Amino acid sequence: MSKRVPLEGSFATAEAARMADVDVIAAYPITPQSHIIERMSEFVHNGELKAAFVPVESEHSAMSACWGASGAGARTYTATASQGFFLMHEVLYFVAGMRLPVVMAVSNRAVGPPANIWGDYSDAMSASYTGWLQVFAANNQEIFDFTLSAFRIAEDPRVLLPFMIHMDGFTLSHVVEAVFLPEQEEVDAFLPPYKHPYAYNPDNPCCYGSVMSPATYGELKKAQDVHVRGTIPVIKEIWKEFGDRFGRYYKPIDSYKAEGAKTLLMVAGGLSETAKIAVDKRREQGESVGLLTLHLWRPFPFEDLYKAVEGAENLVVFDRAPTLGGPTGPIIGEMKAALFGVRNDLRVAGILGAFCGRNLEVTEFEEVIDRGNAICERGSQEMVETVGIRG
Amino acid sequence: MAKNQVRPSALPKWQDCEFGNILPYAGGAKEYKTGDWRTDRPIVDASKCIKCGMCWLMCPDACIVQTEGGTYDANLFYCKGCGICAQICPKDAITMVEEGA
Predict the structure, then answer these.
(1) Taking 90 as the threshold, does the pLDDT of residue B73 lie above it?
(2) CA distances from A45 to A20, A41, A49, A366 (A)
(3) In CATH, what number is assigned to the domain containing residue A120?
């Protein structure tokens, strides 16, 4: 039996970590992530969660402490955002390369300069090649569900990789929505204890993170890459089991009114819910348009993408991270790369916007659909198209 | 490249790589010969040695070993030839000599 409670996104991920009975939390506060770790700290202080809360002096230390804790066999959780995310960046690679199932919520926020605190995916997109599994949540229920299932996926013996849950800073992290919470027994039945095959143990010493020369580094990286790519069937299997147990099913890419649609709009994260209303409006007017919500960002869901765009003529991808001096936006670029040579008949347009918490309204998503269709059909002189930027 | 660094028959394919690059044993560095990185080798003149142990203390590795007579010598299997022992010796008992010279 589940109960429905009002929770802001920060408390939704914290609640999932509490119910997952994490052993160690090592974190440093940063807006808009602070509510998450304040909540975790309260849980530990009040005795609602029996765990070690490590109040570190920086995010580099936070992720380093998570590395040690997870390596020692502790279920480990942390959260960060923006500048803090960048400070822990170096350690992200080590946690992934050493196959440690740390789970982290990222309250997505723009990167300075200019100094800011508001949401976009500049932080998320910088971690695309770290080897972490990554999902984008579109609402607070998804934040809870993705966090809870992240522990199960990350710790699966066939996976053993760290997992990041991206959640929009403020628009999800600080907004209260109704969230279904399962009973503790249901969570315990879903989530077995974490066991690492080479947990740090003085009785069984191993060599971790040894130096590799040019003669072996490439082979290790290839093995890591093949492993990360190969986790998709396990992710789907566990999301299926999650659905069977809790009644909510997730897919790498969600399709909404997409069947037979000529144009598909693709959006990641919370703004996909605004885009949904724009699609509803256009469908009512008889326009053949649907929505794809991108959930799974790493590993990249190639097969799900090909299936999702079947029959479509235009794909309009919306991106929320500036890529200064690069070819268009990060999601747009990867979609084009994934489709090139596979679906050359599918025209792909990309539009960027909603940087640093700038709201994008339903009418603006309608503009994205119209301009996207126009770019698909008539081409564009601009490498980077934006929406909602004055000028 | 030195013979002990590349043994083509022993190099793993990517399919054979260890889980997370974790070696299921400890102390592997003990077998790793770093002596062939050396360009200069320390030569100890035991007759000048006053057994002060400064070379043993200052060696950034653990290559300086005490001999039965109480004087010191370098373990050339690990010694990388940095020359700190020769610099620190108060009696100039250690000189660096070019390898192969």
Answers:
(1) yes
(2) 17, 6, 8, 48
(3) 3.40.50.970
Distance CA A165, CA A101 (A): 13
Record the tokens describing residue A220, joined without a space. Answer: 């290790």
Q: What is the number of structural domains in chain A?
A: 2
Residues 6+ apart with CB under 8 A from A276: A256, A291
Q: Which architecture does CATH list for B34-101?
A: 2-Layer Sandwich (3.30)
Q: A225: distance to nearest CA of chain B, Å?
A: 10
Pick from A206, A209, A216: which is nearest to B24 by CB?
A206
CATH code, domain carrying A359: 3.40.50.920
A:74-133 residues touching chain B, CB 8 A cutoff: 97-99
Q: What is the pTM of this model?
A: 0.91
DSSP β-bridge partners for residue B72: B66
Tokens found for residue A350: 């990309």
* Residues A36 and A64 occupy one common structural domain: yes
Do A183 and A42 lie in one domain? The reply is yes
- Summarised one tens digit per residue, pLDDT across range B6-54 is 444 578 899 998 889 898 888 888 888 899 999 999 999 999 999 999 9
Q: Which residues of B touch A160 (CB under 8 A)?
A: 20
A206 interface with B at CB cutoff 8 Å: yes
Contact B14 A223 (CB under 8 A): yes
Nearest to A387 by CA among A306, A284, A316, A281: A316
ipTM over 0.95: no
Give contacts of B25 with chain A, Cβ < 8 Å.
205-207
What pLDDT digit, counting tens, does each position of A160-209 carry?
999 999 999 999 999 999 999 999 999 999 999 999 999 999 999 999 88
**Residues A242 and A260 occupy one common structural domain:** no
Going by C-alpha positions, the residue among B1, B87, B4 that lies closest to residue B40 is B87
